[in-house]
Amino acid sequence: MLPARPRMEDDAFSDEFCRFLRAAVPSVDAAELLLLLDRERSRWWSATEAAAALAPAVPVSEADSVRYFGVFQANALVAVGPDRRVQYRPANSGLEGHVATLAQAYRERPVTLIRVIYALRDSSIQSFADAFKLKRS
Fold it and tell me: What pLDDT, on a 0 to 100 scale, did the predictor assign at position 129?
């Protein structure tokens, strides 16, 4: 029998992790794409191949894949080859840790993760959360 993995707690959704999500994971589809790249680390992906690998469960278009690849590149999560294929290659262990947390959250707390991703995209919710943090100080 394998030892039990520790369950993900609410504090795993730290401010730092949420900043990572806000910067590097613009949607739930982007999270799915990033986790695909993470699972197959040695592979170089074209946008077309990545979109096809997620279909039909996750309907990501080739154009969306290209856009998400750009976000991942801007956040130092992937290497880009001369043929515009990408490979999962985070620039540092901190990014690697955030992607590991993302994978664990997706497995164990998918509803919470999805809610957090959407909430971080809604500027009015973010403004409210930021105001609350200021009041607590």
Answer: 55
